[in-house]
Amino acid sequence: MPSANPRQLAFSVLCRVDEGAYADLALDAAFQQETPLDPRDRGLATELVYGTLRRRGRLDFALARLCSKPLAKVEPRVLNLLRLGAYQILFLDKVPAPAAVHETVELARREQLERATGFINGILRNLIRQREEIPWPDATEPVVYLEKLAAFPHWLARSWAQRFGGEAAVALADALLQPAPFTVRVNTLKISRENFLDQLKSRGMDGTPTLFAPEGVVISHRGGAALPGDSEGWYQVQDEASMLIAHLLAPKPGEKLLDACAAPGGKTTHLCALGGNELEVLALDLHPQRARLVTSGAARLGCRGITARAWDLTQLPPFLAPASFDAILVDAPCSGLGVLRRNPEIRWRRTAADIAHMAEQQQAILANTAALVKPGGRLLYSVCTLTEEETDGVVQAFLAAHPDFVAEDLCESVPPAWRELFGEDGRLRTWRRSDTGMDAFFAVALRRRPL
Ligand SMILES: C[S@@+](CC[C@H](N)C(=O)[O-])C[C@H]1O[C@@H](n2cnc3c(N)ncnc32)[C@H](O)[C@@H]1O
Description:
This protein has 17 helices and twelve strands. By secondary structure, the chain is of the alpha/beta class. Helix 13 (about 265-275) links the parallel strand 5 (about 255-260) and strand 6. Helix 6 packs antiparallel against helix 7. The longest helix is centred in the C-terminal third of the chain and has 19 residues, at about 350-370. S-adenosylmethionine binds next to helix 13 and strand 6. It catalyses: cytidine(967) in 16S rRNA + S-adenosyl-L-methionine = 5-methylcytidine(967) in 16S rRNA + S-adenosyl-L-homocysteine + H(+).
């Protein structure tokens, strides 16, 4: 039975992640179940979970040198305790190293792992003694670096090194394994960004405008308190890269839109705000319970004109008339490698076969929405990943099968300052700059030729 101890909570979440859970969902669920942790302990538990997952490559590299048997032969729960302890020793300045060892051994006792306490104590004490002598691989061997230090599977390490070049692949992996900033989209239907920033300031919180998105705010300090306007719907938690997508579709008041893969509705509600709350939007999603999130999110943010329903878009939607939408957003399900900062564990779960399967699914969804676009209308395809197959590969296959569509140069319609985020082909690739603090998103604008 987990108790309200941040290390124990972090340990239970790491074990759940090993069983297949997503880190963000498992952590949220643990916070719901626990006797409430105070904000500092909540912060520590979050740091321990994400830090241990992001740094798993380095932690395992260091532990493997000190362990008398291969790490694969160490009992998984004991290995998670070792990783937790090693993370605190190597990366957490605020925890003195001897305290990290003591806390980890105590945690092993509380978890009925008394028999492993000598083993854990010995390895972690050796780690303290030898931490300055660890022969970390350097980035001159990018595939080794990505595999050993960034915990990428071999196929992914090779593919990134080949595609981006070694140096860029390493920089990209490092950037995608940094903690993500806490970013919100100000709901301009309710409040301006300027007024929201004033509201933050008046409560002693620090926020700064995002670099590109005109309604984004990066919150750098809030002292554990709730943000202003939560129940009033003043903001939506959303990464800046994700905020760019609705701007690229550029909805106009009075238009009829389809958001094909809409849940939980971050972009649906953003589209509504950009359309002055005067759009008609049909929001579809595979899962009925996720489609309901769109409805509740829209109510919170005061968005009108949204209807949400469940539908599997790998099947043609017979209830929709051909050529009936001015614009369609396909924010497709994908491998999620562009949001590793939030789900660092997915990098060792994904296989090359998954990517091929995702690309097939994305192609099916795009094909089933294409006929719904009016002649002259827009279809925006976006994904939070950067594999060739799920980005340009899907677009190439789509265009080959749909001669009535053309890819447009998005650079022609975005503010000049955004252009550095786009390739020469006019497609959004936010990873082109690694210092923006954004997730890695891809988007392409497709236009159906007029009759
Ligand atoms: C990247 S997420 C969408 C995020 C959303 N656009 C937002 O901004 O909040 C992809 C969504 O596609 C949905 N999905 C997966 N397979 C689908 C399918 N075959 N048809 C429709 N939706 C699907 C998933 O349930 C998921 O909610």
